[in-house]
Write a structure and sequence with these properties.
Elements: E1 8-9, E2 12-13, E3 50-54, E4 60-64, E5 76-80, E6 85-92, H1 95-104, E7 114-119, H2 122-133, H3 135-149, E8 154-160, E9 166-172, H4 180-190, E10 193-198, H5 201-208, H6 219-222, H7 232-237, H8 244-247, H9 262-268, E11 279-280, E12 284-292, E13 297-304, E14 309-316, H10 318-329, H11 367-378, H12 384-400, H13 405-412, H14 415-438
Parallel strand pairs: 4-7, 9-10
Antiparallel strand pairs: 1-2, 3-4, 3-6, 5-6, 5-7, 8-9, 11-12, 12-13, 13-14
Length: 449
């Protein structure tokens, strides 16, 4: 069905919600997005009965849905090839197919299109897969047969018909090749009808595919269908070095992408004077070296009269070059070409209004956190038991103290309590003296009371 990755339900792919317009059936090349899939037909209009069916690689054809089956993008169908039948996948259906017919096959008549026989059954798909698996082996075998006959040709691809009764061999060659004997040998080896088709280098790259020097898939194998000729003039307009190793693609021809920006370069170069005109000065003649379209500059080098060619390149704007050319036409020669060099000052950059509110731009914004963690690590943590004991001792001490501070003041100011405390201290002093006397110590003489 329409989307091989998210399966289908009720005749429509589920997951992507494009209702059959995506056409993603396993990431095949040259897919078409049906942007008219959700547009309803006017009242009384019948759907367009021609559909575009895609076969191996980029080969496509238009077929008529004569049976009136409900077909949409991604359906595997069996088409009439007379003789035999072929198996393909519907790539465009509906009103978009009408636009594709006008674009690709404007001279196609209604009765010339072949018919779609039916939707492919499991037996048809199984047979189609089996013959597709033998294509690689058949290609190498055919190359060996061509080498035995000494033919200067390269067989690049093989395509079997869906019913396995016919095989088409695509080859490239610079000269005309007589392959009549090769066809006889192939027919005896493969036991099928043989058809030979010569293709160009660009078509070969489109069929085989690959990765370009830009890192992306080749344009010819993904979306490019119109192969236009590319000349070295495209590289000259863009001031590129004529290095065939860099300008050539995998097909051996000049890269198709050289034509992508050619119109922009041609339009921009209209502002520049001709590069063949030499600038004459009193010191000598200046020759054009290169043109920088992006910087709007033309580079010249001076060939002085008394010395060899100088290594200093002089950049000039196109307006300045036109002024010097006008002076030369009047037989006037400027003293020095460097006087026409315009020094362009870079415009001041307007900085945005920005305030470092939370300090996210500071390099040292996390230092206080590191210092805090470091100081906490040096401190000795107290155990929970010690803390609980200290808290219990504090509570007991609070209970022993008099609840009222006025009571403590009254106890200190009572004279009777103070006299009792003095009498107790005198008695302790007498007992200590008596113990010392018994040990031989001479007590001090005290006057009798």
């Amino acid at each position: 069905m329409g989307c091989g990755n998210c399966s289908s339900e009720g005749g429509l792919p589920k997951g992507c919600k494009n209702n059959g317009a995506c056409g993603v059936s396993g990431c095949n090349k040259l897919e078409v997005f049906d942007w008219l899939a959700d547009v309803a037909l006017p009242a009384g209009a019948t759907p367009y009965d021609l559909l575009e069916v895609r076969f191996k690689n980029s080969r496509k054809g238009f077929y008529r849905n004569k049976a009136g089956d409900r077909l949409q993008v991604g359906d595997v169908v069996v088409v009439d090839t007379s003789p035999g039948f072929d198996v393909g996948v519907v790539s465009v259906a509906g009103e978009l197919a009408r636009i594709q017919v006008r674009k690709k096959a404007p001279n196609l008549k209604a009765g010339e299109a072949k018919n779609i026989l039916r939707k492919a059954k499991s037996e048809d798909i199984e047979k189609w897969k089996n013959v597709r698996e033998t294509e690689s082996k058949a290609m190498f075998t055919s190359r060996e047969l061509a080498n035995r006959l000494g033919l200067k040709m390269k067989i690049s691809d093989v395509e079997y018909q869906g019913d396995g009764s016919k095989a088409t061999f695509y080859y490239t060659s610079e000269d005309r090749v007589d392959f009549r004997q090769l066809i006889k040998d192939m027919a005896d080896t493969f036991k099928v009808r043989i058809e030979m088709k010569q293709i160009g280098m660009r078509q070969e790259s489109a069929r085989l595919g690959g990765i370009g020097s830009c890192g992306r898939e080749l344009c010819c194998s993904t979306w490019l269908t119109d192969f236009r000729s590319v000349s070295t003039a495209s590289a000259r307009y863009q001031q590129l070095s004529l290095n065939p190793q860099k300008l050539a693609g995998q097909c051996g021809k000049l890269k198709c992408c050289l034509n992508y920006e050619l119109d922009s370069y041609v339009e921009a170069l209209k502002r520049f004077p001709s590069a063949d005109i030499k600038l004459k000065t009193e010191k000598g003649v200046a020759y054009h070296v290169k043109t920088d379209v992006f910087k709007d500059q033309m580079w010249y080098v001076m060939k002085e009269q008394d010395s060899h060619e100088s290594d200093n390149f002089i950049p000039l704007s196109p307006e300045r070059v036109k002024e010097i050319i006008a002076l030369n036409k009047e037989d006037k020669f400027p003293a020095d070409l460097r006087a026409f060099v315009a020094v362009k000052k870079a415009p001041p950059v307007a900085l945005p209004e920005y305030n470092n509110v939370v300090g996210q731009d500071s390099v040292n914004r996390f230092e206080h956190v590191f210092k805090k963690n470091k100081n906490q690590g040096k401190r000795r943590p107290k155990s929970k038991g010690a803390n609980s004991q200290n808290q219990g001792a504090k509570k007991q001490g609070d209970q022993k103290r008099p609840p009222n501070p006025q009571a403590r003041q009254q106890g200190k100011s009572n004279p009777e309590q103070q006299g009792q405390q003095k009498t107790g201290s005198n008695q302790r002093r007498r007992n200590r003296n008596n113990r010392n006397r018994g040990r031989g110590n001479k007590p001090q003489d005290k006057p009798a009371v």
